[in-house]
Structures are given as structure tokens and as C-alpha cells.
Amino acid sequence: MIRIDRLWLCSAPVDMRAGAERLLACVVQVTGAAHAHHGYLFANARATRMKLLVHDGFGVWCAARRLNAGRFVWPREAPAAPLSLTQAQFDALVVGLPWQRLPEMSVITRV
Asked: Fewest Cβ atoms nearer than 10 Å: which of 31, 49, 80, 83?
């Protein structure tokens, strides 16, 4: 399995026809460098498709995911720099759950 130490969400929409080279160019343009063992997440404008670019120290891997129904919960505003995600946030994001609300969802305050 590919080791991923840090995950970054690149919130600006990307054309899903982009391959690993174009996604890598986006990462380098925005962050200055693609770091080894870091993963970078991209989505299309409708947030129905997602790509993950991972630099494994030797090269890059590109994986794609598509939801059959619904959309990924993606930030509406595009900050200049990518957002850092925890493993729990990533796990929620890839199945279409509201990953930004994980801390408040883990506590029940009303019955």
C-alpha cells in the first residue's frame, strides 16, 4: 500500500480529464512543491468526481472516485492554499459524508 502521511484538499474545481502531470502542475503552482508521502485531493465543479494524487517518493500515483448518486461535500469558497485533512475527515469525504462536521457529530447533545 502507498504510504500517505498528510492529505491536502485542493478546493478549486479541476477538469477531471486532467491526468497526473496536470494535477502535479497544479500542486506545484499552488504550494511550490509536491512533497513525498503527501496526497492531494481534487474534484470537478459539480463535486461528483474526485481524484487523489499521491507522491510516493519515486513518482506519482493518481486514483479516481465517482459517486453514483449525490455529491462529495466540497468547500464552496476556494482558499489560496490547500486545506489539511485528518484521516477521519478523508474517510468521511470519500463516502460523501459531511467531513467538516465530524467533531460536532461525535457528540450527542439532544435526544
From this structure: 80
Half-sphere exposure of 80 (CA within 13 A, CB side): 2
Of 19-23, 26-30, 82-86, the range with the lowest mean pLDDT is 82-86
Model confidence pLDDT, tens digit, residues 52-74: 999 999 999 999 999 888 888 88
For the question of whether the overall pTM of this predicted structure is more than 0.70, the answer is yes
Residue 65, C-alpha cell as written in the block: 472516485
Give the DSSP letter string of 11-78.
-S---TT--HHHHHHHHHHHHSSPPTTEEEEEE-TTSSEEEEEEE-SSSEEEEEEE-SSS-----SS-
